[in-house]
């Protein structure tokens, strides 16, 4: 449960930053709208019958923008309130169960797009069971998209992972072929950083992916999906909240 609280705490921080940003934008647009209104007041146009005020299109646009931003701010505030309530409930539950064994979370770190949770295996498991554990925590086995993401993971796991202990990640070989797919997204694996001699041939049953480190240098290896092992780690991932909003 502690990792769930960490996720919610991070989400709350991101929502607070978004609220600050929206409030600043609303304030900026309102100031611009006020300036446009003052300028309009000083430039009234008299018609033949009566005095009318011509409202520029730009001011109408500003009014509409302020309304949209205000609605977004209300939505974010409502979501923030719900998250705060959920966090308070989880913290209460955490206090009630503090005597129970904690999840063996070895490390937690983030990249530009995702949060990562490195778990140390406490009992024999395999790649499918590791995937099930991630999903039970509303996470998924890590899917590595490029060299930059691999470098972050390599640096962060190095202090915790014992040489030759595999770190199970996502990645499943298509039956009988040397093609790989990510289980969560369903997309093809396009980035690899294979160790020497990898991957093993499809007929050798090494159809799942893992990372091993030797002297702090990480490489991808193919491992049997169903073989239970006592010495291992597995890396779960969760996409950072508000990523699409911040990139909009």
CATH class of the largest domain equals Alpha Beta
Write down the Rg: 26 Å
Helix content: 40-55%
Mean pLDDT across residues: 75
Counted up, domains total 2
Uncertain parts: 45-55, 96-102, 243-248
Please state the overall shape, judged from the principal axes of the Cα atoms. elongated
CATH topology of the largest domain: Mannose-Binding Protein A, Chain A
Number of strands: 10
Number of helices: 5
Q: What's the story with the biggest beta sheet? A: 8 strands, mixed
Beta-sheet strand percentage? 15-25%
How many angstroms does the end-to-end distance come to?
32 Å
Quickly give the structural class.
Answer: alpha+beta
Describe this structure in words.
Helix 1 (2-41) runs antiparallel to helix 2. This protein is α+β, with helices and mostly antiparallel strands. The strands form two sheets. Strands 3, 4, 5, 6, 7, 8, 9 and 10 form an eight-stranded mixed sheet that branches. Residues 45-55, 96-102 and 243-248 have low confidence and may be disordered. It has two domains: 1-36 and 59-98; 105-239, Mannose-Binding Protein A, Chain A. The chain has helices at residues 2-41, 57-96, 127-136, 147-157, 243-247, and strands spanning 45-46, 51-52, 105-110, 114-120, 140-141, 167-173, 180-181, 208-214, 217-223, 233-239. It has five helices and ten strands, in the order αββαββαβαβββββα. The radius of gyration is 26 Å and the shape is elongated. A hairpin with a 4-residue loop joins strand 1 and strand 2 (51-52). This is C-type lectin domain-containing protein. Keywords: Coiled coil. Residues 12-100 form a coiled coil.
């Amino acid at each position: 449960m502690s990792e769930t609280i960490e996720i919610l705490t991070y989400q709350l921080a991101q929502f607070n930053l978004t609220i600050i940003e929206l409030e600043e934008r609303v304030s900026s647009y309102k100031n611009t709208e006020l300036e446009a209104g003052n300028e309009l007041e000083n430039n009234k146009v008299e018609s033949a019958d009566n005095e009318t005020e011509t409202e520029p299109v730009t001011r109408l646009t500003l009014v509409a923008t302020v309304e949209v931003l205000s609605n977004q701010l209300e939505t974010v505030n409502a979501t923030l309130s719900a998250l705060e309530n959920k966090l308070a409930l989880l913290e209460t539950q955490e206090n009630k169960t503090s005597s129970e064994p904690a999840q063996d979370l070895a490390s937690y770190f983030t990249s530009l797009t995702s949060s990562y949770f490195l778990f140390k295996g406490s009992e024999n498991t395999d790649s499918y069971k590791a995937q099930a554990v991630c999903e039970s925590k509303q996470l998924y086995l890590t899917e590595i998209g490029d060299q930059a993401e691999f470098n972050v993971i390599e640096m962060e796991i190095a202090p915790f992972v014992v040489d030759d202990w595999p770190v199970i990640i996502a990645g499943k070989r298509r039956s009988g072929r040397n093609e790989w797919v990510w289980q969560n997204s369903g997309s093809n694996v396009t980035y690899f950083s294979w160790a020497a001699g990898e991957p093993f041939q499809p007929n050798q049953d090494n159809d799942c992916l893992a990372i091993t480190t030797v002297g702090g240098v990480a490489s991808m290896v193919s491992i049997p999906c169903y073989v239970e092992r006592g010495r291992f780690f597995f890396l779960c991932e969760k996409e950072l909240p508000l990523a699409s909003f911040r990139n909009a």
